[in-house]
Amino acid sequence: MLNTQERAHVAQVWDLIAGHEAHFGAELLLRLFTVYPSTKIYFKHLGACPDEVLLLSHGQRVLEAVGVAVQHVDNLRAALSPLADLHAHVLRVDPANFPLLIQCFQVVLASHLQDEFTVEMQAAWDKFLTGVAIVLTEKYR
Fold this sequence. Notes:
Elements: H1 4-17, H2 21-35, H3 52-71, H4 76-90, H5 97-113, H6 119-137
Helix pairs in contact: 1-6, 2-3, 2-5, 4-6, 5-6
């Protein structure tokens, strides 16, 4: 899926955000809800105006899943299988939402990392996150 250079870019960006998963994740979710309000349907437990603690907690879980994917880039299917089952069979998330999440995540990365988030890194992350989304939606079939 990713070549050696792309893997290095993904790992390098992850190293920059590791330890800050809750804050990046919360901002990602807030941006997703603001730009695409229809996505809030899957987060009813957060309420109409999500409280910061709940947003940070769920953002942490979202980014921890990304961290698992980063660590298992060679075997995303196996690493993300439980998460794919959850999204397809329990939460029943519309797969069309994954590209929206990817887009918002890249905006968050670019806004925080600025010059450190190069065009090459963005391309690698786009390819990586698209691969994650594909794995998460395979169970829908």
